[in-house]
Amino acid sequence: MEKIEWNEGFSVGVRKLDEQHKVLIDMINKMIEMQNITVDSEVVSEVLNKMTEYANFHFNTEENLLKEHGYPEYEAHKAMHKVFRKKTVAFCMDTMVHKKSIPEEIVSYLKDWLTHHILTEDMRYKPFFKEKGVW
Ligand SMILES: [Fe+2]
Q1: 93: CA distance to ligand 1 center in Å?
Q2: Rounded to the nearest 5 degrees, what angle is found at the Cα of 76, between the Cα atoms of 50 and 116?
Q3: Residue 98 C-alpha to ligand 1 middle, in angstroms?
Q4: What digits encode the pLDDT tens for the residues 49-66?
Q5: Is residue 135 part of a domain?
Q6: Distance from the alpha carbon of residue 44 to the mean position of ligand 1, in angstroms
Q7: How confident is the model over 119-125, as a mean pLDDT?
Q8: How far apart are the CA of 77 and the centre of ligand 1, in A?
């Protein structure tokens, strides 16, 4: 599976959020790498757990910023994060039962969701923050 490569096209114009997106991308890339090697099941669930934790932290940062500035699509955006939050918790449960690699469908879901979310959904708030002078 190809890794995600961050480029300017991923920039939402707010430095803090870009940095957090990069961390998330790195974490998913790590999982893509792990698919090719046999690792301890504990390592697998640790990586996934960390990513889930970080995703929650990032969503909170993003949601707070959107709310603070009165983003009109705040509720809808938050709802999209919620779907991902739920999914990743379920994935964590799955991998806790001794898997030696992260199933491809999980990695593929995480990769596709995040890429689509940043490039399509997060991009919608880019002009909003720009207008508000948030960068
Ligand atoms: Fe988002």
Answers
A1: 23
A2: 55
A3: 31
A4: 999 999 999 999 999 999
A5: no
A6: 25
A7: 98
A8: 6
